Amino acid sequence: MIKKNSINPDLVEERKKCTFNTLELTHLLDGGAKKTEERKSRETFFLEDPQLQSKVPLEYLSHKEKYEEAVRKACIIFGKVQELQNQGRGGMDNFREILGGQLGSAILKDGNPLTLHYVMFIPTLMGQGTMEQQAEWIQKAWNCDIIGTYAQTELGHGTFIRGLETTATYDPSKEEFVLHSPTLTSYKWWPGGLGHSANYAVVLAQLYTKGKCYGIHPFIVQLRDEETHQPLPGIKIGEIGCKLGMNSTNNGYLGFDQVRIPRTNMLMKNSQVLSDGSYVKSPSSKLTYGTMIFVRVVIVQDAAHYLRKAVTIATRYSAVRHQSQIKPDAPEPQIIDFVTQQYKLFPQIATYFAFQYSATWLWDVYNNVTSELEAGQLESLPELHAVACCLKAVSSADAAQGVEICRLACGGHGYMTSSNLPSTYGLVTAMCTYEGENTVLLLQTARFLVKVWQNRNNLEKFTTVKYLGNDLNRDRPFQRSVEWIIYALQQTAARKIELANRHINERVQKGKAYEDAWNESSIELVAAAEAHCRSFIVETFYNTINELKVSKELKVVLVQLLNLYGVYTALRLTGDLLRFTSITGKDIETLQAWLEELLALIRPNAVGLVDSFDIRDEVLGSTLGAYDGNVYERLFEEASKSPLNAEPVNKSFKLYLKPFLKANL
Ligand SMILES: CCCCCCCCCCCCCCCCCC(=O)SCCNC(=O)CCNC(=O)[C@H](O)C(C)(C)COP(=O)(O)OP(=O)(O)OC[C@H]1O[C@@H](n2cnc3c(N)ncnc32)[C@H](O)[C@@H]1OP(=O)(O)O
Ligand SMILES: Cc1cc2nc3c(=O)[nH]c(=O)nc-3n(C[C@H](O)[C@H](O)[C@H](O)COP(=O)(O)OP(=O)(O)OC[C@H]3O[C@@H](n4cnc5c(N)ncnc54)[C@H](O)[C@@H]3O)c2cc1C
């Protein structure tokens, strides 16, 4: 039914209006023309493989069938990844695309049961294993001779990992650890792939040796027989059931009944238990948390990718959809011409760019700090932890909200699963919880900020908090510029940190314990961490755009997006700006007028911008967002796949409706 090769005329017109070269932007976002070519070839390699097509839309499968289909595809995908590696075409880009929102969510729409193997099991072996342990385990894991997961969270504790209850007690007579789950709440609960896919796990447990507890440590534990996949003796394992989304990830539970593992299965790069049971301390107890930092860093990139996918769908749909009237007797406009619609969409486009640049910055810093840690230098770890926590929290929260705004922007059709917006929301909103619940992570950033604030005469060693050295009383008069907005956001963040710190101190002076004072001030602390993060994101966007070497035409558009992101952020924080800077009501009107001007300036390039993201139709997976804009034909085609439409009369008519109708005659 879909008219092949026919592009919706509205989209044809939109593409004519574009003022810059979309290919130039595609190359910029990919990191160069060669990278674009490589990405496209990878996409073709995966997306055009007939084995990776699904006959029936996922939504119509049962929970069990979904899982089985996901495992089938996951095995093919990673078989293909190994094929690429053998051809010398392997590398990080493959993994990022295949496990994240860029490509992975196209093939496995509702999560991948093997993700944790690559995203957490292997990185933990690499980051926490000694050289000998790496030699023993990593090759097996890369070859997929074993499949692992990361089992940290328990039924009773996810956030407070010092409170985990699983124990690993050293028995020097046999040189073994005994893993045990002493209570129901100590059962591991949530690890991806744990239910029925993984046969190994890195298990985080409280280490006991010589009668003393040394806190949580990572252990490699075999869960299932390598041949039969039967759970090993003492292992109680299963899947935790249906969730809001990610229903193919096979999140599982796990209990231990006195399970023995060799001493050498404790990952001992940072701390060790010697054969006689003596404990050798790590240079920092927080090195055990290294894998979590890694995943928080990659989540920022993933959040950006999901957001650009959603906004591509909603922008193309808004260019094709006609509804209502702006003037009497005028034809129904494209809904993208309603300014309120532009206000829903264009800030999401700008937000994607903002997150993309922060994600790139964070990835580079993460790699530098990791090299420093390898060399035994720990100085930069607290700042990396603080910035990774707040960027993970703000990007996941804003992306989830942005995807929901895009869904609402598509009206009723956005509510269809075939729009792919509901399931995208399911994937993105999970990010707000996993890998550290967002409020908790913002409080971690606040802890760092308060400490820095208390020692703000000594800011040289930091990168992200230099502004805390500025004189808070030095006012910069309002200007309609991003530079002023950055100043205002930093001023707001600094003031909020100062206030929260002051309120903690006041509470302490009134006799409260510091921890209680902290808890009572925590609403302000979270707000301070968020403000700090927002000022960082705008500043990073600004610095990146200033350094870009691109054509004049593209630069103009990127600066418009930067300005839009800045003014949109500022207007969302109007109350804060009025409170912490000398901005006036009149100045706010100026910002509002600027926002409206920017929406109008971006309007002709909206479709061009999302086209530049160059997301294939299979990756969008949406009836509303395809490149050709044949929305209504696609909606009909998808409706025809409903199993209820396979027969004109459903058996429920005979069974229930007919007798019911008769009874009411
Ligand atoms: C192969 C390539 C792949 C590419 C892939 C690309 C695709 C992406 C796909 C993504 C899919 C991802 C799927 C992942 C699924 C989710 C997995 C999980 O949730 S797993 C489960 C995830 N679970 C969670 O995330 C649990 C969240 N909970 C926690 O992280 C912690 O318990 C806590 C941080 C909240 C508190 O910890 P606690 O020990 O009580 O700490 P205190 O508060 O007492 O602070 C003490 C001191 O420690 C400091 N510090 C703290 N952390 C760190 C750190 N990481 N570091 C350094 N320092 C740190 C802190 O600053 C403080 O310093 P100071 O002030 O004293 O100087
Ligand atoms: C889809 C998904 C996949 C996951 N995959 C894995 C996995 O593979 N491996 C794994 O080990 N875990 C996994 N998890 C678990 C995840 O990491 C935890 O759910 C997460 O860290 C939050 O912990 P929690 O569930 O205990 O929440 P809780 O900490 O109970 O949070 C509940 C509320 O309490 C508040 N709260 C808690 N502590 C504080 C505090 N100190 N200050 C202020 N407020 C606080 C929170 O802000 C929140 O509002 C996954 C979770 C999800 C949803």
What does this 3D model show about the protein?
It is built from 23 helices and 11 strands. With 665 residues, it is an alpha+beta fold. Among the domains are: 35-112 and 291-431, Butyryl-CoA Dehydrogenase, subunit A, domain 3, CATH 1.20.140.10; 147-282, Butyryl-CoA Dehydrogenase, subunit A, domain 2. The strands form 3 sheets. Strands 1, 2, 3, 5, 6 and 9 form a 6-stranded mixed beta sheet that branches. The chain has a 3-stranded antiparallel beta sheet with strand order 4-8-7, with no helix packed on it. A hairpin with a 2-residue loop joins strand 5 (200-209) and strand 6 (212-222). Helix 11 packs antiparallel against helix 12 (421-431) and helix 14 (482-509) crosses helix 15. The longest helix has 36 residues, at 339-374. It is globular and about 90 Å long.
List keywords for this structure.
single chain; 665 residues; alpha+beta; Butyryl-CoA Dehydrogenase, subunit A, domain 3; Butyryl-CoA Dehydrogenase, subunit A, domain 2; six-stranded mixed β-sheet; three-stranded antiparallel β-sheet; 8% strand; binds stearoyl-coenzyme A; binds flavin-adenine dinucleotide
How would you summarize what this structure contains?
This protein is of the alpha+beta class and 665 residues long. The chain has helices spanning 9-17, 22-30, 33-47, 63-86, 92-99, 104-107, 115-128, 131-142, 290-320, 339-374, 381-409, 421-431, 438-454, 482-509, 514-520, 522-547, 552-572, 574-580, 585-602, 606-612, 617-620, 631-639, 651-663; strands at 148-151, 167-171, 176-180, 188-189, 200-209, 212-222, 235-239, 252-256, 259-262, 272-273, 279-280.
